[in-house]
Amino acid sequence: MNVDAKRLIEQDKAHHVHPQSNLRQHAEHGPTMITHGKGVYIYDTEGNEIIDGFSGLGCVSLGYHNERLSNAAKRQMDILPFAPTFYNRSHPRVAELGERLINLAPGGMNKVMFQCSGSEANDTAIKLLWYTNTARGEPERRKIFGRVRGYHGNTVATVSLSGQPHMHAKFGLPLPEFKHTELPNYYRFHIDGESEEEFSARMAAEFEKLILAEGPETVAAFFAEPAISGGGALMPPEGYWKEMQAVLRKYDIKLVSDEVVCGFGRTGNMWGSETWGMEPDMVSCAKALSAAFFPISALMFKDEMYADMMKNSDEMGTFGHGYTYAGHPVGAAVGLEALDIYEEIDLVGHVRKVSARFLEKCHAMADHPLVAEVRGVGLFCGFELMQDAKARVPFDPALKVGEMVQNFAHDRGLYLRAIGDRMSFMPPLIINEEEIDLATERFKDALDDAWEVVRNKI
Ligand SMILES: Cc1ncc(COP(=O)(O)O)c(C=O)c1O
User: Do 401 and 296 fall into the same domain?
Assistant: First the structure.
């Protein structure tokens, strides 16, 4: 490491407080400092070339270098670097992006609001649910369901909605309106002999029990990622969405599909909700909307909800919600360019094509002694690590097996994410078959490295 790199790490260590990080580790060792990227590769100050098997944070869909996107940003900065969307004002790119997104959206969506992050999109969704329920004369419908291990953001409301205990403890959260139903991890939680469909029916029955206990007339919505991402790349079991949606319909509870990770091709369809036959009332998206080149997110919903918003706006004289950078011109320009690129290179078709190889290589790791279950769709795959796969005995958490695999993978030149003892593997959507071969080889080597350590400790 050269002197400049050391200085950067010291600067970062001294002043920069890192989100979602181990603060002690940062104070003692400083950060891994990524200096640049190209294609699916990132490069650190140690001179390592690493395949990004986590797409940054599930967002870098087109890889780390794209002149069309950087030119779109520069062009827009030169023409109009900022324009508010408050006070009935607009600008060309955001008008175009709104129409473009609605044309791509799952059925029934006709309105869109822009924000800068997935958290803000979901937070806006919560506020709109409360706002429109007031207009509909149902102000008591305020409770919102998420799922254990779901992840919807970090604002006070969206983190309450998320089912991540480490993000609640010590913050005095979740807020009382937010409830959580079960994590549909079939492998971990099925009863011996129970089929996936039976398991899904049981999940839906448990959900219905919770709704009835709260009082269905007090429940506004269920937020769900089509496949759970931040909670560990968990694909829904067979029949899950059919069963869950039947319960929602029965009690007139809205479904919000959080497509922040699944949106724009990750699962081999434009939307995760298409992959699993979900019929959402609202859709939030972010990340790949701009291929992660600029912070922008969107929340889409139906005309009937807009009509209720209109009632309140008429009464109050305005719709009292919004962020300064909502529909930022540069974000909108980059988003439009990203959507053009997706269409021109048929990104969804590419994901479908290469995911056959990706999933085949991932499944080939299923009989590794550390691995209990492999399950994926598109370029999105989760690995459950267990001491005894058959008896479903987890490793002693003190062994930190997931973290060990993550670290060995890094040493081998692959960035993967461990969520406890689940590994999440979701490379940039432009990855090709040779890169898939290389990435999965490195993953397998990292599992072998970890097994050498773990086998002597169990
Ligand atoms: C499914 C999902 N929803 C919402 C968010 C929050 O998005 P952001 O970090 O942009 O606020 C994330 C972040 O990873 C996510 O994975």
Answer: no
- Looking at every residue in the chain, the average pLDDT score rounds to 97
Distance 118 CA to ligand 1 centre (A): 5
Ligand 1: lining residues by beta carbon, under 6 Å: 57, 117-119, 122, 151-153, 225, 229-230, 258, 260-261, 286
Q: Could you tell me if 223 and 293 lie in one domain?
A: yes
Nearby residues of 233 by Cβ (< 8 Å), 6 or more positions away:
227, 376, 380, 381, 382, 383, 419, 422, 423, 424, 425, 426
Dihedral pair phi/psi, residue 145, rounded to 5°: -100, 135
User: What would the mean pLDDT of 240-249 be, rounded to a whole number?
Assistant: 98
CA distances from 308 to 79, 145, 247, 323 (A): 36, 22, 24, 21
pLDDT of amino acid 107: 87
Residue 2's pLDDT is what? 78
Q: Which residue has the higher pLDDT, 212 or 107?
A: 212
| 376 bridge partner residues | 381
Mutate-to-test residue for ligand 1 from 115, 119, 259, 290, highest number of ligand atoms within 8 A of CB: 119
pLDDT digits (tens, 9 = 90+) for 191-226: 999 999 999 999 999 999 999 999 999 999 999 999
Q: How far apart are the first and last CA of the chain?
A: 37
Give the residue from 313, 344, 375 where a domain finishes: 344
- What's the mean pLDDT in 284-292? 98
The reply to whether 249 falls in a domain is: yes
CATH number at residue 442: 3.90.1150.10
Cα 149-235-179 angle, rounded to 5 deg: 30
- Residue of 408, 412, 410, 397 lying closest to 457 (CA atoms): 397
